[in-house]
Amino acid sequence: MGVPQAMAALRDKAALVRESLQKSQTITESMVSILGSFDHRLSSLETAMRPTQIRTHSIRRAHENIDKTLKAAEAILGRFDLTRKAEAKILRGPHEDLESYLEAIDQLRSNLQYFTTHKCFKSTSGIITHANNLLTKAISKLEDEFRNLLTNYSKVVEPDRLFDGLPDSLRPSATSPGKRNDSKKDSDNQKNSENAVYTPPTLIPPRVLPLLHNLAQQMVQAGHQQQLFRIYRDTRASVLEQSLRKLGVERLSKDDVQKMQWEVLEAKIGNWIHYMRIAVKLLFAGEKKICDQILAGIDSLRDQCYAEITANSVSVLLSFGEAIAKSKRSPEKLFVLLDMYEIMRELQSEIDYLFGTKSCTEMRESAQSLTKRLAQTAQETFGDFEEAVAKDATKTAVLDGTVHPLTSYVINYVKFLFDYKTTLEQLFQEFEESDTEAQLKTLTTRIMDALQTNLDGKSKQYKDPALTQLFLMNNMHYIVRSVRRSEAKDLLGDDWVQIHRRIVQQHANQYKRISWAKVLQCVTIQGVAPTGGGGILGGDSGSGISRAMVKDRFKNFNAQFEDLHMRQCQWNVPDSELRESLRLAVAEVLLPAYRSFHKRFGPMAESGKSPCKYIKYKPEDLERMLSEFFEGKTCVEQKR
């Protein structure tokens, strides 16, 4: 095909395309025209339908508002119904069904809060006023119910119930509370006492406690804290004080204490120790337990309540201790002071726990102050006792030379001190941190020294120097023997014991020398020997002794021995071992000398006139008579 033909074909195709484009343009314009007419029609339709749409929306909103109003009305009516039911329960009072009554109060509070926040209709203020008045009445009845419940179930605790809460070893049947034991408990018993289980009495039945707690919570929510405080404090404080009075607790002043006879006062102190243990471990502990349960969640009110409930009772108990600590000191009070100090130390941890809050600070500090005061008074009494021993001016002499009452009193005193060794060590630590055992040793040594000094002075009252030595021997032996048999030996040491045993022996030797020297001289052979002829006796030195001189020797011996026998049978060596030892010591010197003299010179006296006048005793007679020495017999008993 040639070029012209190709061009012609191309032109045909171009014409065809142009024609197609023109048709498409025409169609497009037609569609635009049609669509434009649709838009115009839709706009007209929308304009026509707008009023209908507006009416439909308004109707829908009206329906929604009606639903909301119906629901609100239903809720309000429900609140009215709940208020009516709550009012009915409240008007009936809490006696029939306390739990329901408390639920009604909660419901009334909820309704009141609802109407307070929904003040959208005219009668709201009237409803709120009515609900508040009703709530006030409800809380008033609640107070009455709280008071009645607390009063009805708060009973005075009988002493027997309190005793049942004590460990067996501390019950009155085991140890009378009015009397202090003569021998203190040892360390094991003390440890058992500290670890003993105490069972506080049930002050209010457990089933009532939750009800009282709920009532208390309602009163606090209503702003009636002060009313709750007064009701609880007055009721429980009265019952606690009555329980203690029934037990025997009484308020005594320093003047009351000063006027009492010692036996009466000692019994009251023993009772006080018992009362303190019962009060702290049983009554105060039980009181704190129910206070914590009833007033749980009301911390400030709870602590203040407990403090004021127990304040007067604590004051009564501690005031007696203070009166004793401040009263006139005397040696016999030392051990009851130590007993009182000991119980305060024993109860210290419980007191710190029970009265550990800020509200109880005064009571806690008062207890600590009493403990310190008792320790101080006891320490001062030690000094008084030492001085009293040194200055004891008792003129009543023990005529038979036996152990002086002062000696037995002081030794028993020291023994008691060692029964309180642990307590004394605690007491010493109240004032200084040092070696408490060394302090106790120093104290004991000073008392022993004061006693020995006083006994030395008392021994000078005897006109017979032999009796002086016997008196000192008896008393020193009693001291040494007592120390050896007590805990004091471990503290004073073996050296102290050995030194004082030698002192006992020295006094025994002095007694023998003073009493028997002259008697022994009568029967001493040294320097006396018979010579030949004429009845003349001569000595080793050549000097002689006549029959008259022998008779005189026997006569003097008889007189002196009889005098000693008469007097010294009235003297007393109360310790049987010491008595036998002293007799044996005398016999070992006297009998061999007499036996030898009697054998050698007896025949000379017997060969004269009235030999029985001079040789009155055989050695066996002397031995028998020596066994009668130091028995403390009276003259009448000797004649019998």
TrEMBL record:
Residues 164-200 are annotated as: Disordered. InterPro entries: Cullin_repeat-like_dom_sf, Exo70, Exo70_C. Residues 271-628 form the Exocyst complex subunit Exo70 C-terminal domain. GO terms for molecular function: phosphatidylinositol-4,5-bisphosphate binding. It comes from the Eukaryota. Keywords: Exocytosis, Protein transport, Transport. Gene3D superfamilies: Exocyst complex component Exo70 (1.20.1280.170). GO terms for cellular component: exocyst. GO terms for biological process: exocytosis; protein transport. Residues 179-191 have a biased composition (Basic and acidic residues). Component of the exocyst complex. Belongs to the EXO70 family. This is Exocyst subunit Exo70 family protein.
